[in-house]
Amino acid sequence: MIKPLTNLPNYGTKTDEITIYAGPCSVESEEQFFEVAECIADLGLSWIRGGAFKPRTSPYSFQGLRAEGLELLAHARSQTGQPIVTELMNSEHIPLFEETGVDMIQIGARNMQNFRLLKALGQLRKPILLKRGLANTIEEFLMSAEYIMAGGNENVILCERGIRTFETMVRNTLDISAIPLLKQQSHLPVIIDPSHAAGIAWMVNPLAKAAIAAGADGLMIEVHNDPKNALCDGAQSLTPAQFDELMQDVKRRAAFEGKRMAR
Questions:
Q1: In angstroms, rounded to a whole number, what is the distance separating the alpha carbons of residues 132 and 93?
Q2: C or N terminus of the chain, fewer CB within 10 Å?
Q3: Looking at residue 56, what is its pLDDT?
């Protein structure tokens, strides 16, 4: 069993730090994932993200490498020293996640109201990154967080990733108003996923800066070494060079807001 890292960034309360979670939508292969991880590890991110288990709209789409993906994530952590966050889809996989030493568990938009799963997460003491559902209200989002915390696990981070509206020019509509609302209604840190929000790579940078200006505590960014040939969500993924440019812009925006980048 791989031991969890002990020097994790602050996740329990809102701070004046901006935490960056970055990596590919899914772990596709050892070569692909390590190329991305090594490229972005020195650019200011705090966490490496990557999907081992992937919930996909189509049953014929790439579903992830599953247990092998978790092992690659753990190996990337040992090589870079960066903690890892990846998505959990059902409670049966919790022992596997603990065995491979996943540092933070992500609950995706489709499982935001999987109450049986949320109750199981309440029995853990591992930080949980909870994404808002595609058509859920702020109150419903907060109640899902309550399911986890009511079980005793108060290490919850809220993630706004865009909601489904009538607009068709973007994948989802980023709800910027959710940031001040969630911070006013709870004590939990709030991060933004601008990659899933619009689903368009060139929109990630302006949405990320808007999120920092609105008070977000962090960003989750999809980065891929070859977006055009990505097996999952290539259209919204930044190249390492584009991620570097984004980080420079985010650092300037954070400094203007009186915040610093977490390491």
A1: 21
A2: N
A3: 62
Q: Which of 71, 70, 78, 85 is nearest to 19 (CA)?
A: 85
Q: What are the tokens at 225?
A: 């070494």
Res 244 pLDDT > 90: yes
The amino acid occupying position 103 is D
Neighbours of 258 (CB within 10 A): 7
Triad 235, 172, 53: Cα angle to 5° = 60
Tell me the whole-structure pTM to 2 decimals: 0.91
| Beta-bridge partners for 158 | 130, 190
**78 has a pLDDT exceeding 90:** no
Q: What are phi and psi of 245, to 5 degrees?
A: -65, -40
Q: Give the dihedral sign, CA 30/32/35/37.
A: negative
CB 49 within 8 A of CB 22: yes
Backbone angles phi, psi at 157, to 5 degrees: -115, 135
Q: CA dist 231 to 28, 209, 224, Å?
A: 7, 27, 10
Q: How far is CA 127 from the centre of its chain?
A: 12
CA distance 54 to 232: 9
pLDDT in tens, 159-216: 999 999 999 999 999 999 999 999 999 999 999 999 999 999 999 999 999 999 999 9
pLDDT tens for 195-207 read 999 999 999 999 9
